[in-house]
Design goal:
about 200 residues, Arc Repressor Mutant, subunit A, Tetracycline Repressor, domain 2, 9 helices, elongated
Length: about 200
């Protein structure tokens, strides 16, 4: 059994998960190797195979541990009112944190082939979407947001927009001028706000 002296199996596993998140984000899931992950973690290939049978299992665990950070790149969870949530979403569409976004993108691509990973991502995204729906519905009830749009439909639209933007960025398409892009995004978000608050 491959172990590092003075390090518990739990500590080794945590190191492997952090290293895997870094390597997957930097190299992509397909190009990342077990040897690179072991090197990043300061351990051996054997240590990885002590804890994981396949590289895909390591990605699943990395996504579980780092999913909150990854989801923050597309749908923040720490807002107490819908207007600040909408502003945060607009900002994240314009400026992203690379590591979280990249790891999420790798996870989404790999989830097509890995049902366990797909389940982890679907569960986490559903939870985040439900949070946004509740926040929008509460703001609609208080008259802060327009009531002519269903909160769950608006949440799904925002989630789809955020996820889709990950793929557009990954293709390296010519960027739109930041001011023009920001204007379009903010106009779209303001459409949810009632007339008094625009």
């Amino acid at each position: 059994m491959a172990r590092i002296a003075g390090v518990t199996p739990e500590e080794t596993r945590a190191k492997l998960i952090d290293a895997a998140a870094t390597v997957f984000a930097n190299k992509g899931y397909e190009r990342a190797t077990v040897a690179e992950i072991a090197r990043e973690a300061g351990t051996t290939n054997g240590a990885i195979y002590t804890h994981y049978e396949h590289k895909a299992e390591l990605l699943v665990d990395a996504m579980r541990v780092h999913l909150d950070q990854s989801l923050e790149a597309i749908a923040p969870a720490d807002w107490d009112n819908a207007k600040s949530l909408l502003t945060a979403l607009a900002t994240r569409l314009i400026k992203r944190e690379d590591r979280g976004s990249t790891l999420l993108l790798e996870g989404l691509a790999a989830a097509r082939r890995d049902p366990a990973l797909a389940e982890v991502l679907a569960s986490a995204l559903t939870e985040r979407e439900q949070f946004m729906t509740a926040l929008l519905a509460e703001s609609q009830a208080r008259g802060e947001l327009t009531g002519d749009v269903q909160a769950d439909a608006a949440s799904r639209f925002m989630l789809m927009l955020s996820l889709g933007s990950l793929f557009v960025e990954s293709l390296g398409m010519e960027p739109i001028a930041p001011d023009a892009f920001e204007n379009v995004i903010r106009r779209g978000m303001v459409a949810f706000v009632t007339g008094d608050d625009q």
